[in-house]
Design goal:
It contains 11 helices and 7 strands. The protein is an alpha/beta fold. It has 2 domains: about 170 residues, 3-Layer(aba) Sandwich (Rossmann fold); about 110 residues, 6-phosphogluconate dehydrogenase C-terminal fold, CATH 1.10.3660. It has a 4-stranded parallel sheet with strand order 2-1-3-4, with helices on both faces. Helix 7 packs across helix 10.
Length: about 290
Amino acid sequence: MKNKPFKNILVVGLGLIGGSIIKNLLNKKENLSIYGLDINLDIVKKANNLGLIKNRTNTIGSLDQDSLIIFSVPPLSIKEAIDLVEQEVDVREVIFTDTLSVKSGLLNVLESYSDIRTRFVMSHPIAGSEKSGLKSSKPLLFEDKLVVVSALEELTQSEYLKRICNFWESLGSKIILLDKNDHDRIFSMTSHLPHVIAYALTDFLLNQLGKKTFIYSGGSLEDYTRISSSDPRMWKDIMVSNKDDLIEAMEGFAFSLDKIIDLIRSKDEQSLEELLNSIKLKRDKLIDERD
């Protein structure tokens, strides 16, 4: 599909993801005006000092119809972010997207903003780092990464959807479409649950071993617990926003863990090995099919 670039980009939330979007766009050296808003005015000033955005305060002036507004904020801050944008922009003249990893709260908020809802296509870039903040943003963060795009019913065949897909592709990403009603349940298991497990495992190890935790471990433990160094506020918001699906996923994981505990306790070596082998084969098969 032919790419029709935007003339103006406004990023709301100047953290890792928002900053990386801006740096990617600046690297292209296109005729593009980039603006940024953030609840923390010091971050706005810093981004301006670094030459990342044109505005120095949370006042940006008017944006025309060839503009894209991207919300890249913690899930529980989305209403505050939309209210901030409404003070600055005629929302009937722009297209909206986001980078939130939980969509149910966003959908609920959008019910109260009909002008924005009719121009909003949801996005979820599967890219990030345990590092957070503008200082950690990278222009190539989205290169060859997946972006999950979920359209509202009235936008499934719209020009808005096409332009959002084109935008992420221009950043080097690969696009996959996902029904908005499936999004939170899937990511509660594939993303949110692994973070909960990493936080819980790290908590257990530090309580039991303290400073010895990473002395008597290989690199795999550091790799596995790496995501427990992620932004606490962001992950608090994600866990609370997606609590029902996440708790169900945690309970399902606990069932699988209990199954292994029972086999170890009973010393049923054959059944334990059969279970581990079955898991290995299924996992290897899915990875091979994906690649």
